[in-house]
Amino acid sequence: MTKLNTVKWNHYLNYIVVAAITLLFAILSLTGFLESSDKYLLEKIAIAITLAVSLSMVVGFLGELSLGHAGFMCIGAYLGGKTAVILEPILGEWPTLIVSLLVGGVVAAVFGMIIGLPALRLRGDYLAIVTLAFGEIVRSVFMNSSKESFGGSLGLDTPRFNKDILFIIAFVMVLATLAVTQNLIRSKHGRAITAIRDNEIAARATGIDVTKYKLLVFTVSSFFAGIAGVLYSYSNFTVQSTKFSYNYSIEILVMVVLGGMGNINGAIIAAALITFLDVELQTILTGNLAVLQDLIYALILIVLVVYNNAPKLKSFREKYNIKALINRFRPHNPSKHRDDEAKWDRVPTKIKMDEVLSVDLQVSSPYTPDKAGKEDK
Amino acid sequence: MKSNFKKLAAAALALVMVFSFAACSGGADYTAENTEYIIGVSGPLTGGAAVYGVAVQNSAQMAVDEINAAGGLNGVMFKLVATDDTHDATKVAANYASMLEGGMQISLGTVTTGPGLEYSKLSVEDNVFFLTPSASGDKIPEFVNGYQMCFADGNQGKVAAEYVNTLGLSEIGVFYKSDDAYSNGICEQFKDNLDPSITTVEAVFTGEASDFSSQISTLKNCSFIFMPIYYQPASIFMTQAKGIIADDAVYYGCDGFDGLAGQFEDFSVIPQEVSMLSHFDSNATEGPAAEYVAKYTEKFGSDTLNQFGASAYDCVYALYYAMVEAIEEGKEIPVTISASDLSDIFIEIFESGYTFSGVTGENITWDENGYVAKGAVKYTLKEAN
Amino acid sequence: MEFIETLINGLSIGSTYAMIALGYTMVYGIAKMLNFAHGDVIMVGGYMIYVGLTVSGNPIISFLAAVLCCIVLGITIEKVAYRPLRGASPLAVLITAIGVSYLLQSSAQMIFGSAPKMVTIADLGNLKFAGLSIPVYIIVTLGCSVVIMTALSLFVKYTRTGRAMIAVSEDKGAAQLMGINVNRIIMITFAIGSGLAAFAGLFMLMKSPSLSNTLGAMPGIKAFTAAVIGGIGSIPGAMLGGILMGVVEAISLTVPPVAPYTDAIEFIILIIILLVRPTGILGKKRREKV
Predict the structure, then answer these.
(1) What are the E-state strand segments in B164-280?
(2) How far is CA A243 from each of CA B4, B90, B114, C255, rounded to the nearest angstrom?
């Protein structure tokens, strides 16, 4: 039972770290140590973390590729912003904040559910293109809205929240996102979700309600994307639809991928780091050098994904990774070995799965050993 | 083990960030250590709109270098800080804060309108004066600290409509970019001020569209087409419309048309008449505009030569001469003056009938709202063949 | 008359989509991967034509150079970025493809700057016919698309390599057991796809002379949408989807109130078609086996 205790402690560690950081910066802010640029940066980091964690639910745990996360955020930003514009004179600052967060989140969640429906029929690349299409449709609708409704091409003027406090609220939202996501993932529902990812047909056969879980994940994930959108609208004076193109969805995806698919802590770190570098480099690199940043990101993305996934590099990876290097200095304790971590190299793919299942003579399927190992348990 | 390591890394990262935050913290007196006057500008230096931002950066730098070479302001040099916002309003806050905290005293605002709105609201809180070369949104001069060197969109639309009303046409075509603040802003005022007896045929495009065959066939019977768009899509439209739109038709644009001729090896391949209402013509052969064009082309080539740059060049000089005038009036502008104090001086000078002559016009003045008043000239870029 | 004109415009837009979609469908059909970077290979082709024109001044030489460059680029991308991932999750491959797409775009901006280049290849003029004025490039593009489509179909059906391609697309493992060099076949597929990208680049520049580093981005996505609508993996499907997209776009652009929503309409059609026929109009139904 000592094992259980360590596990629990581990489970709460990332909340504690995030909460400690929030507290630290809150104190720094109150004592006047933070410049406004730091507060802007913190807001951005918190929004990015919320987005990355919520997207990692869909991509990392459900194993579906969504390229429309910015679309959900767009809905949240516009509807939350509009709610804030209407309600702020009536309700005052704080009640408005809560109401608009809820409105933005819930409407985005409803759309998430709607887009989750095709996810039941479509797989892999098809779903990716449908979510991408969804994001572009949303953007186009807000872009061409009338001036009175959502501001059209000029964007929607939204109230900016006090910058001394907004980043704290944003981090509280990060904690909320973490709480919901992690509790869901670690529950029996979470195991059902990863089962769907690993093999949908087998999951269905064991009686898992695939429809329900897919919709659940899409809904929860887009709820938090909507929340991030509302925070975004509060951190800017105007909400402009140009921001929410598919390129932004890809940016979020990059954070999830760099953090390690299905690794929430990784996503948090990657989101914070990328946003931090983005903002720092934005003011340093100018002219043609600014392109260098995109170039380097692209290179890192390719190298990292190839390195982490190439079947031929598997033995190399196992031999020389940080974990192994650290383990070299630790006493080996087989009882501490855990197998429930979601691993990137086990991330699925339905199309591939079908192929694997429908073929008798598959000479070099990387899934066979894994699957065999799993089913044995 | 792995997750422990990640947490360790997270903690380390947090620590690094805390240090980097703590390192840049200080008092509110950002300009106390300035040894030069710092001019800030935020514009798209990368991405789709980079050609405008780069033009502004180059031209402003050129003006700053010239002023410095001539001894600066009473021996104090100027320094330009340009930051990249990739035409994304979200990035403006960080740019603005970093420039302000880096000691920015004067500003050229932003290059484009979308980010400009965000910038105006940020800078009005701290009272940082800005004279924007090209963020032409109607709302921007409404801020006390905001002034424009370019025409506001609404004004351009209005003047264009007044010109069209005098032509005695019964039907005109309008071709614009429906998801663009500049294009929409002009178009709205244009339609509001157009004689109701004139019917309009409209065609729109969005995004980075590059195939206009549908729009061209919608507009093919129009003898006069108003195009409040930038020169790149305009050049594509004209190339594709050859032989479909009548050769004696007229293309009429606003200041966004500037740079059009540079898009063609030989502009005469376009049979129609092309003219624009603008404050600057990059094909100028005489006067200050031609001098500017020669200098710019020599230094940076003609790739990014456009009215955005000319306007930025004027902005720097306008700010410089305003400071000269303020000193003549007995005001003190020490190199460590705070942005807010300097802003008060600028607002006073600009409101008291400050007049400036540069490459984008002579005797330029600003009204109390910050809208520019200067001659808008109809430039015929190309006669009908 | 108006309607015929709209249709012709639709063909004009659609023929480009069809040309790009052919490249997508080739690669997707055989390698079973969404080559997100296909649009950017088109862009590189465009820049190669531009460089060729500035160096040699001869459109034909520069076009051939561009085809060659694109083929080499396609093979390189496949070898460096995609081949190591053979057997890994398609998600990883897709993300790498996105990375390659960004890499190409930002490299192009580094090298050629951000200002769009105007490239005039050849002015083919207009064909006057029964009161209609049809730009000749539409006819050329459409003609080429049809020829390429037919050639591809025949190639896949009747040549040894083509049949090997079908085998690989059906089942890589079994094909390998049958003595087919899977890597070589996929390399050839990429070479063909990238060569088609150079064609698409040429036709796009013939239509619209502006060349920038995002030349292929949005058309690429639209063309992929077209390929999916037509049934990805099917060569006639790509053609059909492309033309359909073009016609929808042209019709939507001529109706003033919906014109700004054109992109949205195309994507809505995609979603509807996929909901009704998850494998597209001409796509083969895939049975799930356990």
Answers:
(1) 171-177, 199-205, 224-227, 250-253, 273-278
(2) 36, 8, 11, 27
Which H or E element spans position A231? helix A210-235
* Token couple for A320: 């020389």
Residue C220: CB atoms within 10 A of its CB come to 28
Element holding B84 (H helix, E strand): strand B78-84
B217: left (phi over 0), alpha (psi -120 to 50) or beta: alpha
Chain B positions touching C114 (Cβ under 8 A) are 46-48, 50-51, 54
Distance CA B97, CA B89 (A): 14
Q: What would the pLDDT profile of C115-161 be if each residue is shown by its tens digit?
A: 788 888 777 777 777 777 777 888 888 888 899 989 999 999 999 99
Of A247-256, B204-213, B332-341, C13-22, which range is least confident?
B204-213
Q: For chain B, give me the number of helices (H) and strands (E)?
A: 11, 14
Name every chain A residue with its beta carbon within 8 A of the beta carbon of B6: 263, 265-266, 269
C82 φ/ψ sector (left φ>0, alpha ψ -120 to 50, else beta): alpha
Using CA atoms, how far apart are residues A304 and C5, in angstroms rounded to an integer?
Answer: 50
- The Cα–Cα gap between A155 and B89 comes to 10
Q: In what order do the strands lie in the sheet with B361-366?
A: B356-358, B361-366, B372-373
Q: What kind of fold does domain A14-288 have according to CATH?
A: ABC transporter involved in vitamin B12 uptake, BtuC (1.10.3470)
Kindly identify which residue of chain A lies nearest to residue B136, measuring between CA atoms. Answer: A154
CA C63 vs. chain centroid, Å, equals 17
Q: State the burial class of residue A334 (Cβ atoms within 10 Å of its Cβ: 0-12, 13-18, 19+).
A: exposed
Give me the residue label for tokens 């700010």: B319
Question: Which of A25, A155, A322 faces B117 most closely, judged by CB atoms?
Answer: A155
Domain map (residue ranges) of chain A: 14-288
A59, A344 contact by CB (below 8 A):
no
Cβ-Cβ contacts under 8 Å for C68 (sequence gap 6 or more)? none
Report the distance separating Cα A295 and Cα C102, nearest Å.
7
Any CB–CB contact under 8 A between B221 and chain C?
Answer: no
Q: Comparing C-alpha atoms, which of B260, B273, B189 is closest to residue B224?
A: B273
* Region of residue C89 (phi > 0: left; psi between -120 and 50: alpha; otherwise: beta): beta
Mutual orientation of helices C2-31 and C38-55 as an angle, nearest 10°?
110
Q: Kindly give the parts of chain A with pLDDT less than 70.
A: 1-9, 119, 283, 285-288, 290, 321-377
Question: What is the C-alpha to C-alpha distance for residues A144 and C257, in angstroms, rounded to an integer?
Answer: 10
All residues at 6 or more sequence positions from B381 whose CB lies less than 8 Å from its CB, including other chains: B257, B260, B261, B267, B274, B275, B276, B281, B283
**Stretch 48-67 of chain B: residues touching chain C, C-beta under 8 Å:** 48, 50-51, 54
Q: Which residues face C132 on adjacent strands?
A: C129
- A59 vs C: CB within 8 A: yes
Joined together, the tokens standing for residue C26 give: 């080739």
Contact in structure between B283 and B275 (CB atoms under 8 Å): no
Predicted confidence (pLDDT) per residue in A84-105, tens digit: 999 988 888 889 999 999 999 9
pLDDT, tens digit, for every residue of C107-122? 998 888 777 888 887 7
- Distance, in Å, from the CA atom of C203 to the CA atom of C195, rounded to the nearest integer, reads 13
B-C contacts at Cβ under 8 angstroms: 99
In the beta sheet, which residues pair with residue B132?
Answer: B148
Q: At what angle do helices A210-235 and A163-186 cross, to 10 degrees?
A: 170
CA distance A149 to A239: 13
Q: Go through the domains of chain B in sequence order and give each one's CATH number.
A: 37-151+288-374 (3.40.50.2300), 154-278 (3.40.50.2300)
